[in-house]
Amino acid sequence: MKNSRVLWGLWLLMSVIFCMATDSMAGYLLVILSVIVPLLAVLPVRRAAKRLEAELTISAYGEKGTAFAGKILLTNKSLFPTDRILCRVSCENLLTGEKEVISIHMAAPSRSNTDTEFLLKSRHAGKVRLSLQKMICYDPFGLFPVKTVPSREISAFALVVPESFSLETQIAYGESTNMDSDEYSMKKAGYDPSETFAIREYQPGDRIRQIHWKLTEKFDNLMVRDYGLPIQNTILLLLETGYGTEEADADCLDALAEALYSVSQELLSQQIIHSIGWQNHEENTFQCVEVETEEDLNALLPELLGAVPGRDGMSVADHYMESREQLEFAHMVIFSQAHQASLGGLASQCILTEVICSGEAAGYDQQDGIAILGGTPENLPETLSYLEI
Question: Which residues contact 139 (CB under 8 A, 6 or more apart)?
């Protein structure tokens, strides 16, 4: 547009010089036409720009590093064609926060539909959101652009699914008491009379109501029944999308999402029901979803991979506990970019593991009662080849 205006200015200057040099009717006519024609040419463009409608579509799924197709459809309801349209489309990976704007050149004949296909490629897993920011219509001379901002949000979404890796997961069973549980400890007696932990001989201090009278009569010796201890061995996987002073690292968020996805798949292969939680900072909401089957895992991926990162003084575990009176899980695994010492309080209530992804390979460590496995985006799969939680 800038070059067009420079050329137009030069043309006007030459027309004026020609007019002054010849002092003829042709010179005056040339000057008048040089001014009026471009001004008149923009009028139908303005008319057409007001009657342009747009839609965005995109492939529902994509793979990391592989191009996938998107399409923009324009409907021109005006009698005037618009041959030069520039569409500005924002592409944003909601999980990693990466953004870019692409420009798509189109033409819209009068009273017709037209579409243009374009290709996208994402280096990282996540939910990709396309949004039409604006359309710029140019007159035939490229002098006066007419900008049109959509009156409603025009967007489309694609899911770039994480790449999973194989690992071995071992559950370190704890003894977290839960009276509502149907599972009972195999190691320790409890106080639930509806379940028997063991039958043994009477010892001084045993309660009389624990005596098993039928077996006492049978063995001719006082026998008592130890009650069962209801426990919970439920598992919660949390993806940390909040960050402090430093911005979230896209490579690390991508690696953490893949690690969580891989651990979840491994737990499902062992038929272990678990839950996955995350904080969406764009909507300021915490979500926690139980995963029982592969279908459950695939169903939550759009929300998990659309968990927008943001600056946050609270950890994802804090957001989980904010609306709860007590911890509901015996095992918690937090996938994060840095160790958080504030989690030490939770470590006294459950078996807590942190999977850390940062720029430095850290290996295995233990701090504040928390087992920590650390690695870089490149070697995290190797670090997690064996995971005990």
Answer: 38, 41, 42, 45, 84, 146
